[in-house]
Specification:
Elements lengths: L33 H4 L15 H6 L40 E3 L5 E3 L17
Antiparallel strand pairs: 1-2
């Protein structure tokens, strides 16, 4: 019986430990830059609306506003909706905002669809 024993070889590469500041998602809400949004880094749902802060930011919603949350109806909402001011109803004006329920019963704002062409079908508009 032949038995070989290999000596362990240890190499030193002269590596230096360095500090790296990588953000960590402690509350596991999918949002790393909590201070940028003003959210609580220890609470995954800072506004208490039942939606994770990261999901709200990804959907263009404000994670600090309990009335603003991701839209479940499937239409893509635009983040510019918070920056629009209605100017009137004449040609070339930005239409004044209004809210109506969608087919799922969720209230939508006209300005939620800023930058998109929309068709509103219904009765009772004046």
């Amino acid at each position: 019986m032949l038995r070989l024993i290999a000596p362990a070889l240890v190499l030193s590469s002269g590596c230096v430990v360095s500090d790296v500041d990588i953000p960590f998602d402690f509350d596991e809400d999918g949002l790393l830059l909590e201070d940028q949004w003003g959210t609580d880094p220890d609470d995954p749902d800072s506004d208490g609306d039942g939606h994770l802060d990261g999901a709200e930011v990804d959907a263009g919603a404000d994670p600090m506003d309990s009335d603003d949350h991701p839209y479940i109806g499937g239409w893509e909402l635009d983040s510019c909706r918070h920056d629009i001011e209605g100017t009137g109803y004449d040609v070339g004006d930005i239409a004044m905002d209004f809210r109506i329920p969608d087919q799922h019963g969720e209230a939508l704002s006209l300005h939620d669809f800023c930058g998109k062409a929309i068709l509103i079908e219904g009765s009772g508009f004046t």
